[in-house]
Structures are given as C-alpha cells and as structure tokens.
Amino acid sequence: MPHVQTACSVRRMGFFAVVLMVGSVLALLAPQTAAVWNDPDWDFTRHLSTKTLYYPLQTNSNRTAPPAGCHELYVNFLARHGSRAPTSDDIDNLSKLQAILDAERSKILHLNATMFGWMLKWKNPFPLALAGELDEVGEIEHYHIARRVLADYPDAFASPYVSIAYPIRTTEVPRASRSGNAFGYGLFENKGELGTCQFKPFYQYSVNKTRDLELRFFKVCPRFESRVLANATTYSEKNKVLEAYTPQIATRLSKVLNWTVSDKTVTIMFRACAFEYALNKTRDQWCSIFTKEEFLMYEYSDDLSFFYESGYGGEGLGYRIACPLLKDMVNKFDAKINFDPDYEIERAHLRFAHAETLVPFVTMMGLYNDSFQWKADSPWDRISQRQWRTSIISPFAGNFMLILYNCSAATDGGAQYRVKMLHNEKEFSLGPRCNNQMYCPYDDFKRVYLTEPLSCNFDALCDVEKVKPDAALTPDPVIITVVVGVVFAVVGIIAGFVIGWRAKEAVYLKQHYVPLK
User: Fold this and answer.
1) Cα 241 to Cα 245: distance, rounded to the nearest angstrom
2) Rounded to 10 degrees, what is the CA torsion of 351, 355, 358, 361?
3) Among residues 423, 402, 395, which one has the least CA distance to residue 80?
4) What 3-state class would DSSP assign to 430?
5) N- to C-terminal Cα distance for the chain?
6) Residue 2 contacts by C-beta under 8 Å, 6 or more apart in sequence?
7) What's residue 479's pLDDT?
C-alpha cells in the first residue's frame, strides 16, 4: 500500500477503501510498470506469502546463550517441506498463460522490447511430471538448516547414529519425505563411511495419511473440513480484498500490455512470478510487471486466508486441532525427564510436513498474535505493522523447535529442566508468563502454555464418529483361528531376527554411547 498521509480523515480509512482509492489512481496512470523487482530499498521476494524462500530470522551469534551448566537434552523439531514445483493446477494455468502470450504475439512485438521482449520467448518452465515435487532449491534449504542446527546445538546430536536416537518422521507426501532426506544428509554428513562426504544412512518413517493425527490433523478432522474449509465465510475477507483490487490491476496491465487482461490471468501472472523466483531466481519477467502495492495486496489476501483457516481468526478450530502434535512433543519431553527406558537413547524427533501443519502449530504456541481480528477494511496503518504475515510464519522450509535443557549443573538456582522456543531459527521469549526468561522452567511452560492442548480430546473436537463393526461382516471363527495361527508363526520368526539385531545394537551402544547427565 502507498504511504498514508497524516490527515485524520485519511488515517481512519480502512484498507478496503484505500484499495479502491489506489486502484482508481492506478487506472489513471500512464501505461508503465514500477520497477520494484530491482528496487534496492524494498525486497519483493520477502513478500510472496507461503511461496517465499526460506531465510533464518536470527543467527546463533545474536541468540541468548543458555545459563552456565545447562546443555541440550532433547530436541523437538517441526518443518514445512522446502521449495517445491507448482501443483498440477498451477502448471495447467501457466500453460494457459503461455497460450495467451502466443495469441497476443503481434501486440507484444509493439511493446518496449527492453521491458517486455522476454514475453516473445516465454514458455511454461514447469513440466507436469514434476508437479508438487521438492525442487533442488528446497533440498538445499533443508540441508543448510540441518548444518546450522548441528553447529548450534551440538550436545543434542553428539551420540553416534542409531535409528532410535534420531527418528525422522514425515508425511506420506513425497516433498515432505524428501525434505526429511535432505535434512538428514546435512545432519549425518561426516558421520559414516559412504562416499567422499562419509555419509551415514538414516531411518525415517511415515504414518498412514488416514491416521496421521500429529502431522496431517487437518486432513482427518471432519468438523474442520465442514465448518472451516467448506465454509465460505472462512475466505470472505480474502475475497473482498481480491474483488476490490484485482480488477484495478487487470485494467492497469491491459493498458500497459495493450491487450485485455482478465482478473484470473492477473492471479496466474502473480503465481508465475512467485514460482519463477522461488525456483529459478527470475526477477525480471512476471515479477517485473507488479508494483509494490500489488505485492503487498496479494500478501495480505493470503494472510487473511490463513488467518481464518488456521490462525487466530473466527472460533480458532483451525489451530486447536494441532493439539495432538503438541501433546506428542510434551510426552517425549516427559519421557526423557522421567528416564523412560524407551527414550534413554533418543535425542531428537525430527518432523517434516506442510504449511497446513506449521501455521496452526505456530498459532497454538501464541506467536505472531496481534490480538486483532483482521478484516478487508482494517486500517492500513495497522495492517502495515501486523505481525501476522505468512511470508514470515510459513515460507518454504519454515520450521519450529522446542529444545529441552538439563540444567542440573547450573549455578543460578533455577529449575533443573528448561525449555527454549525457536521459530525459523529465531528465539522467542515466553514473556511475562515465564518471568521473561528465554529458558523457561519446564513446569511453568507446561502450566502456562499447554493446559488446553494437553487436555484436548481430538475425536470430540473433530466429531470423529466411532466405527461400529457390522455383524454381517463378522468372519467365521475357523478362519480367525487359522489366520491367527499363521500370524503368530510369522511374528515368531520376525521376533527372532529383531532380538538378534537388538542384541548386536546393545553391544554397540555399550561401546560407544555416552549418556548425558
């Protein structure tokens, strides 16, 4: 949005009114585009909503060091997949955009060749076969995140690799699984014997998508689908912004390009810009035709969509259904603290999922809360200062960490166990609720943050119906007896192999494993 004047009458105008005013002004401008794609004072690439490339929000040198005598005991890590190719729908639309350019070739020939010559040879750069796949850019994002995590939190990853020490869990979607692969390459490089980089092969697993309550809760909650996703009011504020502003952009671009540009084509052009930059770092093609105000408008419209779908908007169902994930993290902390033998060796649990996982989880943790219900007509002076930005909350490879510290050797008289929270590698204080301590006493953390999530009943929250067995489908008892016998025989054979393997692993651990105090 443009700079708002200080006159009270202007300051009181809502975003919706400002959109109309700016759009009207743009329609009167001479046909030209603002070259924000190479503006040294404003970086459009940080405003591409969930298509924004990853960048750490803070470096280790600027973080608060743990109190003397504290060391990392356990790491809970959650990340969105890295930069990906467009989905099939987007790729189809980009092919339609290519067809439009082909049809308007004679008009493009009369445009400024320096600014628009690229349109004459532009082709959809994304093959349908790679729809939704993790791009090399996304692989590199997660590889480097892992290298920084390893350098910043060495105690948590000091033990020799065994599968039960560093389990990696992903959704069944390939881009999430491959993101886990890329992260694992960064984490376990120089820890094995394979290749010139001495890579250590690692284990990762997925839960069936129909039962994945921790990472795909948004897909297994009927109430969320009916009351949020299928509810038109969820997206009404976003649509108000788009309906007010997109026609004005279409009018401006029609004058600039000398052919009729539809509202739908404007949206396709913007997504072409986002993906071209994310995957190819192309700034001077589709991204060159949009103004700063237009980039900010599209960012805000996406922010409104996530705000009411997975954020603080409305009744908040979209983020409360993330409670199984938080409960899982806390249960692992508790098991570590209580010396659960199943967790004696485990040092970290690393999870890779989606924006629809990360956004509600970050919301559940109370981050980026403006304590304000954002609307299409919210005042621009408030909008421009908002914390709620999906470009920051969930860029490609966006991540969240909860780190448990053992401070039994600390000399400050504080709690034995403390928790630190980071989002996109930036530390966040838990505020007055934790005496403004960056390293929050674990009991305070649980009491203040986790009362509702830890007590939530996912089935009740989501109206999950209990599946009742059909008497007509009850199998014959003889068949059951035969099947059970075969199963027990197979299990016995497998158990023999597992017991032998575990015995060998136990010998290895006794030789190499040094427990943290």
Assistant:
1) 6
2) -130
3) 395
4) coil
5) 54
6) 18, 22, 293
7) 41
Assess whether pLDDT exceeds 50 at residue 468: no
Using an 8 Å Cβ cutoff, are 234 and 315 in contact? no
Furthest CA-CA distance within the chain: 85
Output helix, strand, coil percentages for the chain, rounded to the nearest 5.
55, 10, 40
Q: Does position 363 have pLDDT exceeding 70, yes or no?
A: yes
What's the one-letter identity of residue 348? A
What is the radius of gyration, based on Cα positions, of the chain? 26
Q: Which residue has the tokens 């966006």?
A: 398
Nearest to 101 by CA among 275, 272, 222: 272
Give the relative orientation of helices 263-280 and 88-103 as an angle to the nearest 10 degrees.
110
What is the residue whose two structure tokens read 């914390």?
387
The yes-or-no verdict on residue 121 having pLDDT over 80 is: yes
pLDDT top residue among 34 and 54:
54
Residue with tokens 């003397």: 68
For 192, list phi and psi in degrees, rounded to 5. -140, -150
Task: Provide the 8-state DSSP code for 440.
Answer: E
- Sign (positive or negative) of CA dihedral 453, 208, 331, 74: negative
Entry pTM: 0.84
**Which carries the bigger pLDDT value, residue 466 or residue 70?**
70
**Quick check: 134 and 174 in contact, CB under 8 A?**
yes
Q: How many CB atoms lie within 10 A of CB 115?
A: 15
User: In angstroms, rounded to a whole number, what is the distance separating the alpha carbons of residues 199 and 205?
Assistant: 19
Q: 146 in helix, strand or coil?
A: helix
Inform me whether the pLDDT recorded for 399 exceeds 60: yes
Residue 152 in tokens: 């910043």
The conformation of residue 226, written as its DSSP 8-state character, comes to: I
**pLDDT per position as a tens digit, 407-445:** 999 989 899 999 999 999 999 988 777 888 899 999 999
Characterize 450-461 residue by residue with b for buried, 16 or more Cβ atoms within 10 angstroms of its Cβ, and e for exposed. beebeebebeeb
Query: What sign has the CA pseudo-torsion 251, 256, 260, 262?
Result: negative
Run of H or E including 72: strand 71-80
Q: Which of 441, 176, 218, 195 is nearest to 322 (CA)?
A: 218
Mean pLDDT of 24-30: 34
- Asked if residues 397 and 357 have their Cβ atoms less than 8 Å apart, the reply is no
pLDDT for the residue numbered 486: 47
Euclidean distance between CA atoms 179 and 135, whole angstroms: 10
User: What percent of the chain is predicted at pLDDT more than 90?
Assistant: 71
